[in-house]
């Protein structure tokens, strides 16, 4: 066998195989590789979008939590403020009730004092009449002296 002929035949077979591979095998392989690369790129892009969406969702959740905490603190402050208002209103009502009871007690005390004065005036008038009766040792006209005693009561 001739080495040159073998080498030439191998060269022709190599070029035919290369041409066949480039024409029929290479395009589907490149297409499959390109599709796979596109799928990988799409997957990476989707993963990146997912990360961004997750980060955005986390930011939204944090904002909502902060807003909720703020609202809860505001409501708590409002409740505490209202409780203080209720306490102040109750204190004012109690103070008004205390003043009313005190005024009523003072009025009752004044009435009692007035009654006691009247009773003392009556007793004083009776004592005056008895004293005058004993001094004069005679009978006193009750009607005439009742007017006199009423006048004395009015002066006292």
TrEMBL record:
Keywords, sorted A to Z: ATP synthesis, Cell membrane, CF(0), Coiled coil, Hydrogen ion transport, Ion transport, Membrane, Transmembrane, Transmembrane helix, Transport
Pfam families referenced in this protein's UniProt entry, alphabetically: ATP-synt_B
Originating organism: Limnobacter litoralis
Subunit text: F-type ATPases have 2 components, F(1) - the catalytic core - and F(0) - the membrane proton channel. F(1) has five subunits: alpha(3), beta(3), gamma(1), delta(1), epsilon(1). F(0) has three main subunits: a(1), b(2) and c(10-14). The alpha and beta chains form an alternating ring which encloses part of the gamma chain. F(1) is attached to F(0) by a central stalk formed by the gamma and epsilon chains, while a peripheral stalk is formed by the delta and b chains.
Residues annotated as transmembrane: 6-26
Source taxon at top rank: Bacteria
Keyword Transmembrane helix part of the UniProt annotation: yes
Chain's role: F(1)F(0) ATP synthase produces ATP from ADP in the presence of a proton or sodium gradient. F-type ATPases consist of two structural domains, F(1) containing the extramembraneous catalytic core and F(0) containing the membrane proton channel, linked together by a central stalk and a peripheral stalk. During catalysis, ATP synthesis in the catalytic domain of F(1) is coupled via a rotary mechanism of the central stalk subunits to proton translocation.
Coiled coil: 44-130
The name this protein goes by in its record: ATP synthase subunit b
Principal location: membrane
Stated family: Belongs to the ATPase B chain family.
Keyword Chloroplast listed: no
Family matches, as Gene3D superfamilies: 6.10.250.1580
Topological relation to the membrane, as annotated: Single-pass membrane protein
Location(s), subcellular: Cell membrane; Endomembrane system
SUPFAM superfamilies the UniProt entry points to: F1F0 ATP synthase subunit B, membrane domain (SSF81573)
């Amino acid at each position: 066998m001739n080495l040159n002929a073998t080498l030439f035949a191998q060269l022709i077979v190599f070029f035919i195989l290369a041409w066949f591979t480039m024409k029929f095998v290479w395009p589907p392989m490149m297409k499959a590789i390109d599709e796979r690369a596109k799928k990988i790129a799409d997957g990476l892009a989707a993963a990146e979008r997912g990360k961004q969406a997750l980060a955005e969702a986390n930011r939204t959740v944090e904002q909502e939590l902060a807003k909720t905490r703020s609202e809860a603190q505001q409501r708590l402050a409002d409740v505490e403020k209202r409780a203080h208002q209720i306490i102040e209103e109750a204190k004012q009502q109690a103070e008004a009730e205390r003043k009313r009871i005190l005024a009523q007690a003072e009025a009752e005390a004044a009435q009692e004092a007035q009654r006691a004065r009247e009773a003392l005036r009556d007793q004083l008038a009776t004592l005056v009449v008895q004293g005058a009766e004993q001094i004069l040792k005679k009978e006193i006209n009750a009607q005439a002296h009742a007017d006199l005693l009423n006048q004395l009561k009015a002066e006292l």
